[in-house]
Amino acid sequence: DAGVIQSPRHEVTEMGQEVTLRCKPISGHNSLFWYRQTMMRGLELLIYFNNNVPIDDSGMPEDRFSAKMPNASFSTLKIQPSEPRDSAVYFCASSTTGGYQPQHFGDGTRLSIL
Amino acid sequence: DAKTTQPPSMDCAEGRAANLPCNHSTISGNEYVYWYRQIHSQGPQYIIHGLKNNETNEMASLIITEDRKSSTLILPHATLRDTAVYYCIVRVANNAGNNRKLIWGLGTSLAVNP
Lengths: 114, 114
Known about the structure:
The complex is a heterodimer. Chain A is mostly beta strands. Chain A has strands spanning 5-7, 10-13, 19-24, 31-38, 42-50, 53-56, 65-71, 74-79, 88-95, 104-105, 109-113.
């Protein structure tokens, strides 16, 4: 079975540019999570969706970050304008809703802002 | 969500059991204990979870103390491929349709040595 699919795997761009990260959750999963991982701060939840609706975006660093989930099989995380401090690995995870269902992670996008 | 405390690093000989401890002394009655691991350059991988009974699956066993203030993840026969960072997390299981977010600590870096 296909797992969570993220693209691109690596992204290098100059500061000020717009960056768009993409995620395809596991089919049938109706919860989707965006995380950021850095050496200094570890793994941080940025936002999560249930049934395509954002539930908690308190982890989104600032207005430069935005996330959308137009349908059950696709989500984007956008940074505009990007800054060097946004450099990190960004993970997407999905799960079924409710109870104790575990989250399944993609392999991440390694983002470098020069 | 309750905080967890784990040793920053551990070593284990290949073929031996790896016992990874976790303290969660402020855990509430309805909070589950989850274990994930993250192999270098990959996304976190779900291992196992439990509430108060010991649990076993094809990957590991989870032993939770009777007072639920600590737990141990056991990899019965560690291999080199088990070298990873192991995260212990407690999370409320919410059946109301909202997945509660996971609060990640720094985990235990397990090195399995030949």
